[in-house]
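Hi F.,

I've been meaning to write this up properly since the lab meeting, where we talked about keeping a consistent format for the predictions we share between groups. The idea is simple: the sequence comes first, exactly as it goes in, then the C-alpha cells exactly as they come out, then a line or two of notes. No screenshots and no reformatting. I'm using this chain as the first example so we have something concrete to point to.
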Amino acid sequence: MADDYELIDSGDGRKFERFGAYTLVRPCSQALWRPRNAEAWKTASATFDREDGNRWHGRHSLPESWNIETAGIRFKLSGTDFGHLGIFPEQREQWKWIRDNVSGAAGTSVLNLFAYSGGSTIAAAQGGADVCHLDAAKGMVQWARENAALNGLQDRPIRWIVDDAHKFLRRENRRGRRYDAVIFDPPTFGRGANGELYKIERDLQETLALIRGVLSGKPLFVLFTSHTPGLSCRVAENIVRQAFPACRRIESGEMLLGDMCPSGIYCRGVF
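Output, unedited:
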C-alpha cells in the first residue's frame, strides 16, 4: 500500500514531516524532546510557526495544492493560513480500523460528525458503508467531496451536510433516522455553520446524549477522537463507558505520528 506520509523527525516543540514530494516543519506542542538530526530540518520545503502570529516561511516553494496517498486514501493538500494541510495523519490507524469494521456489514449506515476533510468518511465508504458527512465549514465539506472524488467514490451513497452538529442531531432524532456507527472528533473550541459556539468542556455531554438518540437498535461502534490538551485516554474511556453502557468492548490509546509523537487520543466503543 502506497504511503506518501512520513514523520522524519520531531523535537523542540516542532515536527518535521514529508507529504509526498514536500517536507514541512510545523508546531507540535508535545514534542518536548530534542530532535535527532536538527541539521536535516534546514532542507524543509517550507516551515510554519506561531511565534509572531500564524506565519509560513517558504510557502512559495509549495504548489497551491497537491495530492498524496496514505492508509489507502488519497487526499488533496494545501497550505492553509492556520498551518493545516487538510489532513491529520495521526488518524491513519483509525481510518484502517473504520474500513475493516464496516466491511462485510451490508447496509451499514455511518455518521461522521465534525468530519473535516473526510478521511473517516472515505474509509467508511471504502468499506461499503452508507455515510453521512457533517461539518460546520462549507469549504471543508467541499474539500471532503473533492477527496471522495479523488478516491473514485463520487457515486457512493454519501450525504454531504453543512450544519451545526447539535441542530442536525436533533433533527435526525425527530425524523427517526438512525445510524449503526457514529464517528466524532469535537473541537476544543469551534463555531457552527451560523456562528454557534462549541466548547468541549461545556457541550460534550449534550453531544453524547444526542448521539445516543440516533444510534440504531443494533449499533456496531462509536469512535471518539480528540486533540484537546489534557484529555487523556482514561478520561475518554470513562466518558464513552458512561455514555454508551451497552458497549461490550472499549479500547483507547494515543494517536501517534511515527512511533513517538503523540497527537491526540482515540476511544472506540464496540457494541
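Notes:
The chain has a mean pLDDT of 95.
Residues 11 and 34 are 5 Å apart (CA to CA).

If this format works for you, I'll send the rest the same way.

G.
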